[in-house]
TrEMBL record:
PANTHER family: CASPASE-ACTIVATED DNASE. SUPFAM superfamilies: CAD & PB1 domains, His-Me finger endonucleases. GO terms for molecular function: DNA endonuclease activity; hydrolase activity. InterPro entries: CIDE-N_dom, DFF40, DFF40_C, His-Me_finger_sf. It comes from Oxylabes madagascariensis. Residues 1-43 form the CIDE-N domain. GO terms for biological process: apoptotic DNA fragmentation. Keywords: Apoptosis. PROSITE patterns: CIDE_N. One of its GO terms (cellular component) is nucleus. The keyword RNA-binding does not apply. Transmembrane segments: none annotated. This is DFFB factor. It comes from the Eukaryota.
Length: 193
């Protein structure tokens, strides 16, 4: 029943087409997709795209569908993707102001009126903390190098002050896209270890 002529095997997760030598090197239980002539597979990202497309009109239904998929899912990577999807779709991520997402602001000082101002403040505070830590290390520096060390700390502090301690890194409203590490929706991911 399989269409042998023109058929191909691909990895389920990313759509990589398998060669015979690659196939033999796969670990046990690797999930594959058999493609007939003219068919294509872009990987499980296609499943996620379909979920996200449905999300636009039926967020609750998408969350419920993802929960059902998760109950039968055994692949750890897909379990993580589905769990993250459920968590993030259940959040009111696009809301920016305190009155639009009261749950997000629980436990935060009332002076923060929107998510971006809190994230900007949080980033600035962390950068200041790093500078205090670096400054506090001066007693461990060899006495002959302390003046040079102080000079470097002062240069770093001046640079950080001039860019407002890089508070823009996690401010999704930052207009200069290159200045922030997150998307306009507030998503970010680590780029290096």
């Amino acid at each position: 029943q399989l269409p042998l002529a023109g058929s191909r095997l691909c990895l389920y997760e990313d759509g990589t087409e398998l060669t015979e030598s690659f196939f033999r090197a796969l670990p046990p239980q690797t999930e594959l997709v058999l493609l007939g002539p003219g068919e294509s597979w872009r990987g499980c990202a296609g499943d996620i795209e379909r979920l996200l497309a449905a999300f636009c009109s039926q967020q609750g239904a998408v969350v419920e569908a993802a929960r059902r998929l998760l109950t039968d899912e055994r692949a750890p990577r897909r379990q993580k993707l589905l769990a993250d999807l459920i968590h993030n779709l259940s959040e009111n991520i696009l809301a920016e102001d305190r009155e639009d997402d009261k749950k997000w602001f629980e436990g935060l000082e009332s002076r923060f009126k929107n998510k971006s101002s809190y994230l900007r403040h949080s980033c600035e505070s962390r950068m200041r903390g790093y500078m205090r830590e670096v400054s506090g290390f001066i007693s461990n520096v060899h006495p002959a190098a302390r003046d040079a060390y102080r000079g470097i700390i002062d240069l770093m502090a001046d640079k950080l002050k001039s860019v407002k301690y890089n508070g823009c890194y996690f401010d999704r409203r930052e207009e200069e896209e290159a200045a922030r590490l997150c998307t306009a929706e507030g998503w970010f991911s680590c780029q290096v270890p």
